[in-house]
Amino acid sequence: MDAPLPQVDALAIRGLKKSFDKPVVKDLNLQVHPGELYALLGSNGAGKTTTLRMVAGLMAPDVGTVQIFGIDCEKHPLAARAVTAWVPDEPMIYDKLTPYEYMALIAGLWSVKPSLAAQRTDELFTILGLNDVANQRCEAFSRGMKQKVALAGALVHEPRLLLLDEPLTGLDAAMARIVKDLLDARVRGGATIILTTHILEVAERMASRIGILHHGELVAEGTFSQLQARFGGGKGSLEDVFVDLVTDARSAA
Amino acid sequence: MTLQRPRLVLLLDHEFRLWRRRFSSSTDSKRPWYLSRFLLFLAVFYVAAQAGDFALMWSTHATGPQPTFAQLVGVDLLIVAFLVFVTITELSFVIARAYMRGEADLLYAAPIPPDLIFASRLIRGAIGAAPTWLLLLSPIVNGYIVFDGFRYVSIYVTIFLISGLAHIFANLLLLAVYQGLGPRHTKSVGNLMAGLALVSFIFASQFARFPWGLKIIARLDAALSAYACNAQGWPLAPARALLGSFPDTFAVAVLGIGLVAVAVPLFSRAYERMMLDCGQAHESSTRRHRARAQLPIRGLRLTLLRKEFAAMRRNPTLWVQLLSSTAYIIPAGMSIGRGMFSGDHFDSAMLAAMLAFMSVTASSPVMQLVFLNEGAPELMATAPMPRSFDLGCKWQISALFTLGFLSIPLALVTWLSPIAGLAGLLFCLIGIACHAIVYISFVDQAVPYRNSKKMHLPLGAGLLTILLAITMGALAFTMMRHSWFTLAPLLVLLATFGALVPTSKRRKLVLSVFNA
């Protein structure tokens, strides 16, 4: 009988540091396991987006390494990007393209076969309710519509690691529910998702594990029940835990 | 079975699709008359320009001998001037693209070598830079082809290649600025460079008009003649290409392709860093601007004026744009001055009309900021004050600021002729008012429940069009009287050329090549 293959982390961050005028990410260590939905929480300016940008290969860290499924992002950036998708908080959608054209562009960039891309596009557009506007240019779209197109673009090449920065911003309640279900389905299908959000109920309900960043440092990490037990006295919502943690960290500073 | 396209082809297709669609909107298909009217206007304008040029060339045409060495040097200098001018205009385009929000994130998060992205940008930009110039210059080039032979078709190829080279130079120039100053200052310094270069360029075009300018240029002239010792040297290849030599056209093409081949592997990593950093810097700056837009409104005129002044003071790009706009005013003011000194009052009055058009150009960046500052229309629309009060304040501040910038050329004109100065001031006020009407309609579009675009936009645009027509007509008429080039956009180029080739003998020689 073959020995089981060692489990490779979907994301392994070691000793990550980044400074602009002041340190933004301080010696961050983080492991995310395959098939997890990991919620990265923090106040404004805590370093969440900077961390995700470094993982996506859009920013070089000052110190430290990032590995995606064992691939070193610095040494093999293209291989790492091939299995990753990144959706920023204000996604870039070309105003002059239609959603169909946008999807074809993204599929082409990730080398998805056109026939497969068309099939996946149809599926995603049906789920996200974009069929009616699929041939209209994006310039008149609302922020929520653009968010949906960006999300569909991120999913069209079926990434193994999905990085989402505030994915529910601009979506109405019904669409937010659909997106959450879609992300749940991807996680059940084996994809790994790392998302940042200020809607703590989403993290509480959806995330396998939660990490809380404060001033560039990971001050707490675990499942919701673990965080509740350690910082909330075994009760209270994630919001209570988060506020207590951040207040404590501020007063300690 | 469908085949995947190579990713360079995919990127090029993407770039060209964006380029084709940049001036059209999704609503155009619902109003085809809009596009057809524009095309009709363009066609009429073009045919008129072509007919005028043919008429001029027909009356003055005389086939000369082969171009002399002096002519080649002159034409080479003209090409260098053209290259510099197009590089300046392309620099603004390259800056805008570098600071486009989020685009770099999208492309560089994909598993594509940065070389491909850089190459596709260079190729698209190099090809995209040419059509405007080809269209603007084609009436003249057609004249040469008709009157002097088919070999002059090489002028088209040369213009195309020079425009492409200019785009590549603009990219490299911006990369150099970024490497030296970082992402925060690249935009303002790049724009400042473009503005200053344009001012210098236009000011230099008037250099030969000064008495001491002639002596200096005569020395420069002698130095250039000594430097380029024969008409076969490679520095003169662009000139020979422009004058119908196909081997030299080929050489210039090889130079362009070679430059792309060298630049792509050398600079693609630096370009990636620049695009990502500049995109991020734009994001931070946009957030800062939004925060500034949320200033408290107390309903006082002074508060509003102070707010607008504060927003303008903190916007370095505005100052750069104003500087660029003022560049156009310098030759206009000097032309008016020349007209007055020579006693040609008609020229002065006509060129005062041109000043009005310049006022529109100068007020554009001010109004862009004052009327359409991000989030401001919505904020003002919800504030407890009459709409007319808010818009009135905006109009006043725009007029004050623009007139402040125009005060120097206006003072010059008034000093030379009080009547021309008064006319210039009146034209400026009309120009600013027409422009404000257009911007008010934009504000109305930004706040849909106060939609009155049906009234304002055609009115403002119509008034501006009439003003533009008067200005262009005046300019064309003045040029025709002096037997200058027939196309207004060539004024700057021609004036620069005039400065570089100042002596009447040389000017006559080189103009004989261009103007028969």
Secondary structure layout plus pairing:
The complex is a heterodimer of chains A (253) and B (516).
Chain A: E1 11-19, E2 23-32, E3 37-42, H1 48-55, E4 63-68, E5 71-72, H2 77-82, E6 84-87, H3 99-109, H4 114-128, H5 143-155, E7 161-165, H6 173-188, E8 192-196, H7 200-206, E9 209-214, E10 217-222, H8 224-231, H9 238-252
Parallel strand pairs in A: 3-8, 3-9, 6-7, 7-8
Antiparallel strand pairs in A: 1-2, 1-4, 4-5, 9-10
Helix pairs in contact in A: 3-4, 3-5, 4-5, 8-9
Chain B: H1 7-20, H2 32-60, H3 69-98, H4 103-108, H5 114-128, H6 130-148, H7 154-181, H8 183-205, H9 211-227, H10 237-242, H11 246-293, H12 301-313, H13 316-341, H14 345-372, H15 376-382, H16 387-416, H17 418-446, H18 453-481, H19 491-500, H20 504-515
Helix pairs in contact in B: 1-5, 2-6, 3-7, 3-8, 3-19, 3-20, 5-7, 5-11, 6-7, 7-8, 7-11, 8-11, 8-13, 8-19, 12-16, 13-14, 13-16, 14-16, 14-17, 14-18, 16-17, 17-18
